[in-house]
Each structure stands twice: as C-alpha cells, then as structure tokens.
Amino acid sequence: MYWSASQAVDGDANQWAPGSAINVFVLRFADVLLMAAETEAQLGNLDQAEVYVNRVRNRMALHPEAWVYAYNDDTDPSAGFSGTHAANYKISPYPDGALPARIMR
C-alpha cells in the first residue's frame, strides 16, 4: 500500500517490495467489540459485555460463508478447500444472562 503522491517511486514497478514502509494497521470491528466486551467484564458490567459479544456472535451466525472450510486433501493444501466446514460450528448468541453466569462459575 502506498500514497498516491509516491506512486511513481513506491508503486508496483518494484516487484520485490511493492508498496512502502508506511505501516497500516487494520482492526476489524469484531476486534473492537470484543475488546470493549473484555473492558466491560473487567469493570464488572457483565450484561454490557454480553451485548458486545452477542453482536459478534450474531453477525458470524448470519454469514456461514465466512466460516473456515476444510481442505479437499489434508496432505496437499494446494488441492483447495472442500464444501465442508472445518469444524462443527454452533454459533448463536448467548441467552440473556448466560455470559455473567458463565464467568461467575
């Protein structure tokens, strides 16, 4: 990734190291929500932590195409992915009050 002003110098012509040394941090919204949930849990606001965790779980449950798929051939990853999920995913939101109960056990 490079700035358009430096495209001539840092552009794709340099095939061994395209881009620039400018680091760009990518932070997913799910990561932000889970950090907020952890903060709320540390502060003792477990109901709010559950709200944040459930937002992530709900979104993931609605998008099974984003789940991890198994390889067609475990010995040869270049064989591509199968249509089978890599695990037996059961993603759903926690019922109200379940997260505080899980943490307090």
Low-confidence runs of at least 5 consecutive residues:
none
Alpha carbon gyration radius: 21 Å
**Into which percent range does the helicity of residues fall?**
25-40%
Secondary structural class: mainly alpha
Q: How much of the sequence is in beta strands?
A: 5-15%
Q: Terminal Cα separation, in Å?
A: 47 Å
Order of helices and strands: HHHEEH
Coarse morphology? flat
> How many strands, what sense, and barrel or not for the largest sheet?
2 strands, antiparallel
Number of helices: 4
Number of beta strands: 2
* Integer average pLDDT: 76
Strand order of the largest sheet: 1-2
Write the layout of secondary structure elements.
Elements: H1 7-10, H2 29-42, H3 46-61, E1 69-71, E2 81-85, H4 98-104
Antiparallel strand pairs: 1-2
Outline:
39% of the residues lie in helices and 8% in strands. It is mainly α.
Characterization of this structure:
The protein is mainly alpha-helical. The chain has helices at 7-10, 29-42, 46-61, 98-104; strands at residues 69-71, 81-85. A two-stranded antiparallel ribbon has the order 1-2. Helix 2 packs antiparallel against helix 3. The radius of gyration is 21 Å and the shape is flat. The N and C termini lie far apart (47 Å).
